[in-house]
Specification:
It is a single chain. With 112 residues, this protein is mainly beta. It has a single domain (2-107), classed as Beta Barrel (OB fold (Dihydrolipoamide Acetyltransferase, E2P)). Helices cover 9% and strands 59% of the residues. It contains 1 helix and 6 strands; from the N terminus they run ββββαββ. Strands 1-3-4-6-5 form a 5-stranded mixed beta barrel. Strand 5 and strand 6 (94-107) form a beta hairpin.
Length: 112
């Protein structure tokens, strides 16, 4: 059961071109947004879609795969874990961020 602790699996579409950062220590990190959609019918029987946006972060070889094969609009599946942190913005307001750190990625549909 310990493998189920803090586990996230998402399938969605990339909302922006991935942002690749090469760090001074030689490591690579990629950040992107992922949209997941939930479809349901309202009380009038009309189809509705609820879209949620997720902040995705990938490191190392996974970052290499995303840099090479993933672009805006691409459908992907990810497996990872949730992390949260806070920071103060330029105006001194405390901001909270929740991100999904990717362990594995599956490319769905056609590649570039």
């Amino acid at each position: 059961m310990s493998t189920l602790k803090n586990k996230v699996q998402l399938i969605g579409n990339v909302g922006q071109e991935p942002i690749v950062t090469n760090l001074e220590n030689g490591k690579k990190v990629v950040r992107l947004s992922l949209a997941t959609n939930e479809n349901y019918k309202n009380s009038n029987g009309e189809k509705q879609t609820n879209t949620n946006w997720h902040n995705i972060v990938a490191w190392g070889k996974t970052a290499d795969i995303i840099e090479k094969y993933v672009s805006k609009g691409k459908e992907i599946a990810i497996d990872g874990k949730l992390t949260s942190h806070s920071y103060e913005d330029k105006e001194g307001v405390k901001r909270y961020v929740t991100e999904v750190i990717v362990n594995e990625i599956l490319l769905l549909g056609n590649t570039k």
